[in-house]
Every structure is written in C-alpha cells, then in structure tokens.
Amino acid sequence: MPARDADESVSAYVDTEKTFFELASEQRLSIIFRISEKKAKISQLAKDLGITIQEAHRNVKRLQDAGLIEKNPEGVFSLTTYGSTIIKQIPTFNYLSKHKEYFSEHVLGELPIKFIMRLGALDKCEYVKGVVAILERWKGIYRNADQYVYEIVPQVPIDLIEPAIDRVKSKGIKYSYVLPKNVIIPKGRKDLLKKLGHNELLNKGAIERRMVDSVQVAVVLNEKHASVMFPTPKGETDMNMLFYSSDPIFHEWCLDYFRYRWYGSDIFDENRLKEI
After folding, report:
1. What secondary structure letter does DSSP report for 194?
2. What is the average pLDDT across 247-276?
3. What does the mean pLDDT of the chain come to?
4. Rounded to the nearest 5 degrees, what angle is found at the Cα of 179, between the Cα atoms of 175 and 180?
5. pTM of the complete model
6. Integer Cα distance of 257 and 249 in angstroms
C-alpha cells in the first residue's frame, strides 16, 4: 500500500479513536449513563456518583468537547443525538468483554452481519454451563410456554421430545422447530413420536418443522424466555454452554434469528434423518 493510502486509512479512524479515548474512563461512562436516565446539573451528577464537583466538572467538560453531551442555558446536561446513539453500542462491547474467554474458544458461525451488529442485545443474560443444567433450562422453557416454543437445534436430545409435545397437547401451544439436513437422531425417537401422537399434531398444524443445510447457532425460546448457543471453531454447536435470559431485548434477538432461519428453510425431509 502506498504511504499516502496508508495515512488516509489511519486518519479514517481518528474521530473513532477520540471517542473511544473519552469513553475509556469509569467516571465518564458513569456520567453519560446517569444522564441517559435523567438530565442533571453538575452538582446532582457529583452527588449521585459520589465524586467531587471538580471531578464531575473535568469529566463533563471532556464529554462536551467530544460531542457526547450538551448543556442548556439552565446548566442542565443531556445527551446529544451522537451521545445517545453511542451508548446504545456499549452493550455490545460489554457483552463481548464479559465473555471474552468464551469467545476465545467459540465463533459466530453462520451468523449474518445484521445479527453480529446486534450482539449487545444479549448483554443481560445468564451464562449456563453443563449439559444437565442446560437440559433443565430447556425443559423450563417448555413447561412455562403459554403460546409457543420455537427452536433451532443441531441434534435431538430424546429427553426433550416428551416435555415439548406434552405442552402442545396440554396447553395448545405452537411448537415449531428447525433441524439440519445432516441431523442424527437418537434410537427410539420414531417410536416415541408415534406414542405421543406427533404426526396427528403435525397434521393439525400444532407442530411445524423445517430443515436447513446446517445449524451452528442454536436458539430455544418461548414467548418469555430465550436461549442461544454458539459453535466451536470446528463449526459444531457447543451444547455444553448456553446464554439464557428473560430480558425482552435478548428475547427479541433470538426470536428474530429464529424467524430469519425459518423463512430461509426448506421442507422437512424425514428420509434425511440418520438414527444412531
């Protein structure tokens, strides 16, 4: 790359660098998040955050100079449009920072860029580890469903089939699931589905199912709770670690992802299933 092109490439990030620099302070972050909740004067900011007036004044001045906050004639500070938009991006960094060890061992798989850009929606979550704990969370999602259960999973744990179908029969919920075309199913699945009346529920439309080429990112959710799993670098969904939440924004992300995969899926083909 010619020297001039390199200089232009670096200079393209100067403004971004300045913003990151101003946000690299616990006090300044606390100030902008406090102002995002309610406009305030310097004296109130200092009191609420437990800092001196001098500290508040110094940090407020820097945030003003960065274009993140502004002051009205009465001395009350509020976020600028720029500042308000910037803090909405912070949950993404927060989520990735809190789970950087996890993401050093996992990838985002087939996740489209529009969902990667919204990863901050997953910030308010619980990290669940261990197969037993995860299966219990999923069973809880089934038991507490009043409207629907939607899921995209890479395999079919036989322990989860009966709880899901029982909820369809007892509560009349909608059960929609997506499986990969190379899915391996456990022995006894067909007999269990027959016993539970799975095909009758399919014919009634109470159960819907589709297929996609592969599943790396998995989601299981009802109308209140949601969960998501990411794959290892080999592209295999890690079924031992789960992010779980009842936060509405987290739920919306999972629901949007399910719909994205559902509407891009193919007709379910029972002949593609391999039993072990």
Report:
1. H
2. 94
3. 92
4. 170
5. 0.87
6. 12
Tokens of 185: 């199913």
Task: Give the rounded percent of residues in the chain with a pLDDT score beyond 90.
Answer: 83
DSSP 236: -
Structure tokens at 240: 């031992």
**Distance of alpha carbon 37 from alpha carbon 35, whole angstroms:** 5
Whose CA is closest to 35, among 81, 83, 79?
Answer: 79
DSSP of 135-164: HHHHHHHHHT-SSEEEEE-SS--GGGHHHH
Each residue of 84-104: pLDDT tens digit?
999 999 999 999 999 999 999
Closest CA to 31 of 74, 72, 4, 71: 71
CB within 8 A of 253, min separation 6: which ones?
Answer: 115, 118, 121, 122, 226, 228
Q: Which residue has the tokens 């820097």?
A: 62
For residue 59, which of 17, 20, 31, 19 has the smallest C-alpha distance?
31
Specify the residue for token string 């406009």: 39
> Which tens digits make up the pLDDT trace of 128-143?
999 999 999 999 999 9
Spatial strand order in the sheet of 207-212? 126-129, 241-245, 226-229, 218-222, 148-152, 174-180, 207-212, 266-267
Structure tokens at 58: 């110094």
Length of the chain: 276
- Calculate the CA 158 to chain-centre distance: 26
Identify the H or E element spanning 32: helix 26-37
Give the list of residues 6+ apart from residue 47 with CB closer than 8 angstroms, or none: none
Give residue 5's pLDDT band: very low, low, confident or very high (50, 70, 90): low
Q: Are 122 and 230 in contact (CB under 8 A)?
A: no
Q: Kindly list the distances between the CA atom of residue 207 and the CA atoms of 87, 97, 137, 204, 273, in Å, as whole numbers in the listed order.
A: 41, 39, 21, 8, 18
**Rounded CA Rg of the chain:** 24
pLDDT digits (tens, 9 = 90+) for 186-232: 888 889 999 999 999 999 999 999 999 999 999 999 999 999 999 99
